[in-house]
Amino acid sequence: MKSKEMRNLIEVSHFVYNCRKCGLCGNKTSGTVPYVCPVKEHTEGFEHFFSRGKIIIAQGMLEGEITPSPELAEIIYACSLCGNCQTQCAMIDNHTGLPLVDPPQVVEAMRADLLREHPEWIDQEYLAMLNSAKQYDNPWGMPRTNKEKWMKGLSLRDAKKEPSEVLLFIGCTIPSNPVVSPLAQKAATILKLAKVDFAVLGKNEPCCASVLKKVGSFDLAQEMMQKNIDSFNALGISSIVTLCSGCYHTLKKDYKKSYPPLIPNVYHIVELLASLIKKGKFNLCKKKPLKVTYHDPCHLGRHMGIFDPPRDVLAALPGVEMVERIATRENTICCGAGGGLRLFEEGRLAERIGEASLQMAIDIGAEALVTACPFCEINLNAGAKRLDFPFPVYDIIDLVEEGLSTT
Amino acid sequence: MKKRFPESLYQSLREIVGENYITSNPLATFAYSQDASVFGGTQACMVMRPGSTEEVSRTLFLANEYRIPVVIRGGGASNYGQPKGVPGENILLDMTRMNRVLNINQKIMTVTAQCGIIMGKLQHACRKEGLYLFSPFAPLHIVSLGGWISGVAGAAGLWRDIVGLTVVLPNGTVATIGGGPGTNIHQPLPFNRHLGGPDFTGLFIGDGGSFGIKTEATIRVTRFPSVMRASAFVFDTMEETLEMVGQHVERVDPHPFDPILVFCPEAMKNFLPNPEGKEIYTVMGMMQGHSVEEMDARLKAFNLIGEELGGGRDPSLNAMADAMAASSNPEGGAGGGEMDWLAFFNGFGLACWLPFNLPREGFVENYRKLVSWRNERLKQAERRGYQYTAKWEFFTPTDSSGIIGEIDVFFQDAQDPEVLQFVQTMMRDFQDYALHIGAINTYTQGIASNLHVNHWSSGFKDLFKTIKLALDPNNILNPDLWTGQD
Question: Whole-structure pTM over 0.90, yes or no?
Fold first, then answer.
């Protein structure tokens, strides 16, 4: 591969060469880290399935020992980009505290180069997502009107027409899948009850481009982000509240790094819920006792440091008892849906990972698992189907809304 | 160039481990071409991940039949490189699929595990049962049990606790060794390695994986040491420091849990106030045990010696000692601490590990020779414009006779192939020099093993060759090790 053909990989080559190939990213086990890489754990476990092997392959590409191939495409898409490898990595700058190795960035860069130079080797489903994003402004091939169906009967304000404090950003995934589609309506109900001044964009809500970037379409993602920033900044809102951890991560991190940057503050719904509960904006009544554990979505927890607000919300729910799994907070194990992994192996690998995640919940005696991301909820539900018995998976919005419904 | 093997061989190997656990995909094999060391791994023709002793045995039978070199790999955590075999022609056995804890025996306090298990996982399994595996100087979270036994257990202390092994000999024969089931078919428990016959277990410790592939090991464990104590003294000269170390090992007969670490001036210059610019040596004692009374007594003995010898005190140093002791405890005792230190080192850049292992007698003189050698080499680095960020110097007694230590350097510019080559050459030459002044290798791995052969006595060399030839007549298992060539 010529230099210009690996321009994204070259940009992050310092992460490749800083890696000492010690293997912590694949082998660490401790009291709080049952394993690091869900892909290594739930495949045949060869080196190329986890970060060390992928970084060695990246180095081989940079040094001309590896030429791109369809097999390479398969390897670099076998990653959930969950970032646990980076969390466990010992290569931290002693002065700044910043990571010296960032495997997800290396994998994303390899994807971007390969997608640009050899789209013919990329799985058709990934390409379909990109085409859908261009055509319908969402990666899931659904008509734009799906993003407003949930609004029926709620009398919500249109952010483009009526100024408001908050934009409730639903994201593309929630309206696309019946497992999670009720979340939008439930979130809006909660916010109305709490008298939050908010509006929505309905069918005009754009894709945040998170999925596109993860799949490797950097150029398209950048183009969409820039367009969205202009549009959000023009709305006159003070904050954006997302229901999806992927949207949150992208809006808060990537959009803020862009120029001009995104002006409104970005919050995840769990942050807002925790704040509203603390301020006593609504009452929660006691429901049937339920012992739950919380799954930290990678994009919300490990990547953005939002660990306490969801736990504060759960603690405030009468009747809900919270127990922690072994892999929690920054050591959380990916649900299996990250980085486009649900499209890999037709979703079988992602489902195995999801099942293992639930097993960790079952092992500590939890009766249900709660999360705060539609990707996680969808994949964990898919994993639950592999179990021999029903095991409920909820979004935290479900439990809050349920607590409200009898007040 | 990768060799092509007959399809019948591929077919047979696939039948042994199952289709999913064998690959000849060039990208997959390439991913094994490096490890944690600057000397790297090897390019294999195919990689297999066996799941049982039987699968390893059948693979070696077949490899003998076809005369194919076999190299083995655990966590990929070596300091001196992995066996290279015959690059491009090897079957590489990635042993980390064999990662189960087979038995924890609370009565006789042993743990039996498959040798591909990562030491951190093994330590954690013991910890859950209230037990502790003493494994100092292991980067716990990356090294496998088999790699540890083959490549470094002799350096620190674990070798005494290895009670028995299951080994697949190079010809595929499975042997159970160590006093117990290996020497008495009516006894299922390995419990005393040294009785019942010659210590064949010792033969396989530190062999670099040349005499056989360890698939299971039984190791003695202790109750988890829940009480920690730490203390530190500073001295102006190395002679005084060695006196402290000497008196401690001679008078107290320290418990194996009590590492005494000596940090030399370069290591401590960023931590201790030193307005006069003196050389400062720090003796830090960390004690782990089971009761407050016992630990206080051991701490008192350590402090008494330090005070008698006029060692200085520094509050910040004591706080550091306490913090190190505390951080080392939760998962892996002193070994757990080692992992924290690895993290500490990593931030400094490309590590040039310079370990040594010397007798206590004559240590000061030899240590100074090694430091002087290193500093001369660093002048060369400076002339070439290579920058190093830190030097790390420490040593610790292994027992009453010996001392191991390191005088490492950390270079910037890990991306520069010339710097990498400089580090490789420096590590290699340092080992050679250390051997010339009478040191023995800390690591029985990769190039360090080969360098060492050139310093063996002729009798030892003959003995080694005789054993290797008897066990591995076709020289298929890690054939590049212990050859004297690197």
Answer: yes
